[in-house]
Design goal:
With 148 residues, the chain is mainly α. The protein has one domain (2-147). The protein has helices at 2-16, 23-41, 46-76, 82-92, 115-121, 137-147; strands at 104-105, 111-112. α2 packs antiparallel against α3. The termini are far apart.
């Protein structure tokens, strides 16, 4: 039980200092947490589950909107404040613990979410794009048919 409390403390510290965290998002997350506690204490009552699911969806929506509006404000002020923009990009593209960049928009206005293009943009040369980790369906059929 102590480890769970430690995890919750660490999770709260991560979210507490996020740049996109606003008052309405915090209150939505609190509503979600209190709905979860009520659901747990009720002995997993079906009505409480419905209330919790609504609170969870609302909190997810608030977080998504908050992150999106923060990213739009960062992108809008990229010319006037490039340090803040690059700090955010570097924070997103750090080690595996941090979040990842999912899409980039080039100067022509074309949005790309191809990992290879993102890696090329960031000038990472050690990407092994030629290696396939999964067999295609036809490759699998060839190997099984050829074995028999």
């Amino acid at each position: 039980v102590q480890n769970l409390n430690f995890f919750m403390l660490q999770w709260n510290l991560i979210w507490k200092f996020s740049q996109w965290m606003r008052r309405d998002i915090k209150s939505g997350l609190r509503r979600k947490f209190s709905a979860w506690e009520a659901f747990k204490k009720s002995g997993w009552n079906a009505q409480k589950k419905i209330v919790y699911n609504r609170a969870k969806k609302e909190a997810e929506k608030l977080v998504k909107e908050g992150v999106k509006s923060y990213e739009e404000s960062i992108a809008g002020s990229a010319k006037s404040n490039p340090k803040e923009f690059y700090r955010y990009v570097n924070n997103k593209s750090g080690n595996g613990f941090r979040e990842v960049i999912k899409a980039l928009k080039n100067s022509d206005g074309v949005v790309s979410n191809d990992p290879k293009e993102i890696a090329d943009f960031k000038e990472y040369k050690n990407i092994k794009s030629e290696r396939r980790y999964f067999l295609e369906k036809t490759d699998y059929e060839k190997t099984t048919l050829g074995a028999n």
